[in-house]
């Protein structure tokens, strides 16, 4: 059986609950051969983000080149891409005609801000329009839709804004940040 291939481009999480560690676990659970390009090394755990160190653009470029020159991914997922220069470097790789899932990692579940306003603008203008699916959490959806989300109807309004103004095919607003359950909301 030939395995499908997927590439994650993201930061690390030494606790294994997010970032490339979680992505690779998810790929493996679906019998997908996972590859990873590290953008940032993050010291974090369930209590918050404690330190972030970004890799050089040269290191990221070399990782991308080596993956694509050997095993071309059939899908790409991005997570934490903290700097506009990183996004610009990654853009040609995700704008190819393959499924692209973007987790617009801007704000950690702990509430820690992970990217600059300039990076958010690049996400909105370049990366989200080429994404097949984006998966913001509540805080990220608020930034992308430029509105506050306090109830379920706000989720619908935010998703419609993101779809119509930014252009992805699907928006999945991840639950767990509104109410008592962890319902995810998918919009096409």
Main β-sheet description: 7 strands, mixed
For the biggest β-sheet, the strand order reads 2-1-5-6-7-8-9
Helix content: 25-40%
Whole-angstrom Rg: 16 Å
Count of β-strands: 9
User: What's the number of domains?
Assistant: 2
- For the record, what is the CATH homologous superfamily label of the largest domain? Ribokinase
Give the helices and strands as they follow along the chain: EHEEEHEHEHEHHEE
Structural class of the secondary elements? alpha/beta
The end-to-end span amounts to 32 Å
Estimate what percentage of residues fall within beta strands.
15-25%
Number of helical regions = 6
> Architecture of the largest domain in CATH?
3-Layer(aba) Sandwich
CATH topology name of the largest domain, in short, is UDP-N-acetylmuramoyl-L-alanine:D-glutamate ligase
Mean pLDDT: 91
Contiguous uncertain segments of 5+ residues: none
How does the overall form come out from the CA principal axes?
Answer: globular
Question: What are the SSEs and their pairings?
Answer:
Layout: E1 4-10, H1 19-29, E2 32-38, E3 40-45, E4 48-54, H2 57-68, E5 75-78, H3 84-94, E6 100-102, H4 117-130, E7 133-134, H5 138-145, H6 152-166, E8 170-173, E9 185-187
Parallel strand pairs: 1-2, 1-5, 5-6, 6-7, 7-8
Antiparallel strand pairs: 3-4, 8-9
Helix pairs in contact: 2-3, 3-4, 5-6
């Amino acid at each position: 059986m030939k395995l499908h291939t997927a590439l994650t481009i993201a930061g690390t999480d030494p606790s294994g609950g997010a970032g490339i560690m979680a992505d690779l676990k998810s790929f493996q659970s679906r019998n997908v051969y996972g590859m990873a390009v590290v953008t940032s090394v993050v010291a974090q755990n369930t209590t918050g983000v404690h330190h972030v160190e970004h890799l050089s653009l040269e290191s990221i470029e070399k990782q991308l080149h080596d993956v694509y020159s050997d095993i071309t991914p059939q899908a790409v997922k991005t997570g934490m891409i903290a700097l506009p220069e990183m996004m610009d470097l990654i853009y040609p790789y995700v704008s190819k005609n393959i499924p692209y899932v973007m987790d617009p990692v801007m704000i950690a579940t702990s509430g820690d801000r992970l990217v600059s306003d300039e990076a958010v603008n690049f996400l909105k203008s370049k990366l989200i329009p080429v994404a097949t699916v984006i998966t913001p959490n509540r805080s990220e959806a608020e930034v992308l839709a430029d509105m506050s989300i306090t109830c379920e109807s706000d989720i619908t309004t935010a998703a419609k804004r993101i779809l119509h103004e930014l252009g992805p095919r699907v928006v999945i607003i991840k639950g767990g940040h509104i109410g008592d359950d962890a319902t995810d909301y998918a919009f096409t």
